[in-house]
Sequence to fold (326 residues):
Amino acid sequence: MPALPSLQQLRYLIALHEAGHFGRAAEKCFITQSTLSASLRDLETTLDVTLVERDRRHVAFTPVGDAVVARSRELLAQASDLVELCAAARHPLTGDFRLGVIPTIAPFALPSSLAVLRAEYPQLKLFLREDLTAVCLDRLLASTLDAALIALPYDLPAGIDTLPLFEDEFLFVTADAKLGSAHAPLPLDQIEPETLLLLEDGHCLREHAIAACGYQSAQTNRTLGATSLITLTHMVESGLGHTLLPELAIAGGILSGSSLYARRFTPRGPARTVALAFRRTTARRVEIVELGRIFARSKGFTGNARARTARRARTAKSASLVSPQT
Fold:
């Protein structure tokens, strides 16, 4: 049987690929540069190929080196899944769990969910990372996250599966009292796309809102873009335009204290799907399903969630939300 590379050698190779520099890669791995270099030379000897072209200024990976890095990421993720399989079999939802969450979900879905998790699984150590969808998915594939709370639709990379949790309807939000205070749902075709203010490029919520309304990105206001939903509501309150906000955010109180109005659409408004994303090879499916149950139960739009949305919006200064449609 031929000699096999070690997982440690593969970790060092990935670190060098990400850092692009032997010194920085060694620091990231908490080893000396000479140790890193020697380990990678041994790896090349084991595989009998040149993975990295070296000189004093540059580090360049050969084509086979790039291919080995990609396969190494898969192998390390599978090794991590193997360890997690055994840990989950012993004690489900105990120990460390690394969860990514996108910014348009985190402040609104997590507070009540985390309280439930603390009560039901006191031995769980949940490590949260808030980031854009693309970054969360990259970290999932690299096995630095166990799951990610994202919104669909999204063009998922190979190797990622999702567990849909609930639908999150978009509502029309405006500072215009005449347009916002009407007690009837707003026909979707009455929205002028050039008046819409949305998050800047890179946020999936922007694309969800545009696609859900049947618009093209170029039709919307591209001069002004916000980096967060809070900033977006301030821009709308200043009279710069209107926006679409997910019901999850409105139920979470984002309009509280504002002078904004929220209206539902007719026919039933466009929506995104909140879901848990995870590696197809993960050994933590049972735990992910349980986490999904808790997220859906505590913040999904079931039961009284729509009434809660209406109640919170009505308490905002001068804000109104039409009654939910049954």
Remarks:
- Residues 300-326 have pLDDT under 50 and may be disordered.
- Residues 85-161+274-302 form a domain with the D-Maltodextrin-Binding Protein; domain 2 fold (CATH 3.40.190.10).
- The radius of gyration is 24 Å.
- The chain has three domains: 7-72, 85-161+274-302, 166-272+306-315.
